Amino acid sequence: MSRLGSCAGISWDAEAPACGKGYHSRRCRVAGSPTEKGKRRYRAMEVLGHAGFQMLVLFTIVLLGAVARKRDLMNDTFDSTLSRLVMTVALPGMILDSVLGNQNLPSSETILVMMACSTAVYVIVCPVAFLIVRFLYRGVSKSARGAHAFLIAFGNTGFIGFAVLDAVFGADAVLYGAIYNIPYNLFLYSVGLLFIMSSDDAGGRGPGAAYQLKLIAKQLVSPCLLSCFAAMALALLGVTDSGFVGQACGLLGQMTVPAAMLVIGSTLAKMPLKDMISDGWAYVTTALRLVGVPLLVFVVGGIFIKDPYILAITALLSGMPAASSGTMMCLAYGGDVQAMARGTFLTTVLSLVTLPIIALIVA
C-alpha cells in the first residue's frame, strides 16, 4: 500500500476505505485516519510551537542584553551608538536583502495592497486610541494620556517586527514588513508626535507646526525609510541580486536581530522593576496594544483583505510591543517619560506570551 501523507505522526494509505457508517467508520477511527480537524490542530500546534520557540530565542538574547548592562558591558552611550548603527546600516541592509535575496517576489498589485492595508490600519487605530484614552482614562494627566495613546497606536514594527516576521513566516515576509513600515513611519512622526506633545505640563517645549513639518521631512530621508522606498521600487521592478550587493546586504542584515534584542534588554535592565509594574493604567494599555489592536485589525481586516498572507502579516505586526522610539520622543518634546517607559517595559515583556498566540490565531 502506498503512503499518501501523515499528520501528527498518523499515516493513512491509498487502499484504506472511506470513512462512513458502521464498520468502516470504526476502522478509520481505530487506525487514526486524519481528519481536517486533526490537520488544523496539528498545524496550530506547529505554528504555536515554532513562534513560541523563536520568541524564547529572542528573549534569551534580551536577557543577555540585561546581563551585559548589569556587568557594565553596555551603557546608555553604547546602546545609543549601537541603535544608530542598526537603524542606519544593519536594518537598511536587512530590508534591501528582503528583496535582493528573494527569488519569489510578490506582484506589484500585492505590494500596493500591502501599503494600502498599513495605511488603513493607522487611519483606524490612531483615532480609536485617541478616543479611548480621552474618555476612558479618567484622572490621568493630559501628558500621560498622550503617552498611552501613542503606546496603543504604535508598535515596534521595525526592531522586533522584522525579527518576529522572519522567525514566524520566513525571510520573504520581511519585504512585506518593509512595505508596511512606509505608511507606519509617516503616521509615527506626525500623529505620534502630536500624541506626545498633547501635554499640559510641557512648558511650551513642544515644537511648533513648522518645526514638526521639518522633523517629518527629516524622517522621510532617514536611511531606514529610504531603504523601505528602495525595497518597494526594486520589488515593483522585479530586481533581485544574489551576487556581491545582495550578499553584502544579507550579511549586514544578519546583525539586526541580535543587536536589537541586546539593546532592548540593556534598556529594560535600567528601569526599576517596582516603578514599571505599579501603574494599573499601564496594564490596560498593554492589553489594548498586544491583544485589542491585533484582534481589531484581524477581524476588520478579514472583511476587506482577501489575501490571507497579507492579513496574517498585517495583524501580527499590529500586535508588536510598543515602539521603543516613544521614550526618546518624550524626552525630546516634553512628553510623559515615565508613562511611556512603563508601557514599553510591560508590552515588551508580555509580548513574549502574546505574540506566539497572535501568530497562532492569524496563521
TrEMBL record:
GO terms for cellular component: plasma membrane. Belongs to the auxin efflux carrier (TC 2.A.69) family. It comes from Enteroscipio rubneri. This is AEC family transporter. It is found in: Cell membrane. InterPro entries: Mem_transp_PIN-like, Na+/solute_symporter_sf. One of its GO terms (biological process) is transmembrane transport. The chain crosses the membrane at residues 47-68, 111-137, 149-170, 182-199, 220-239, 251-269, 281-304, 310-333, 345-362. Keywords: Cell membrane, Membrane, Transmembrane, Transmembrane helix, Transport. PANTHER family: AUXIN EFFLUX CARRIER FAMILY PROTEIN, SLR1864 PROTEIN. It is a multi-pass membrane protein. Its main location: membrane. Pfam families: Mem_trans (PF03547).
